[in-house]
Write a structure and sequence with these properties.
Radius of gyration: 14 Å
Distance between the termini: 20 Å
Number of strands: 2
Helix content: 25-40%
Number of helices: 2
Structural class: alpha+beta
Shape: elongated
Oligomer: single chain
Length: 66
């Protein structure tokens, strides 16, 4: 079972290792289809990269076999 809480991406990376996979996490806050407040939020995350790891944003995880 894999949790869908992407604020816990480190847990997902550990689960991947346990399953014999590598996990590449990419943070990509997007302004596509965003309203005014959401756009400001996403632009802030794009500028302040350290916040991407602690606040909700779009996250892609690529799993590959080891």
């Amino acid at each position: 079972m894999v949790p869908e809480d992407l604020l816990r991406y480190r847990n997902i990376e550990r689960l991947a290792v346990d399953c014999g996979l590598d996990a590449q996490v990419t943070f990509s806050p997007s302004t596509t289809y965003s309203g005014g407040v959401e756009t400001v939020y996403s632009l802030g995350l794009q500028r302040l990269l350290f916040l991407q790891r602690v606040l909700p944003c779009t996250v892609g995880i690529l799993f590959t076999r080891r």
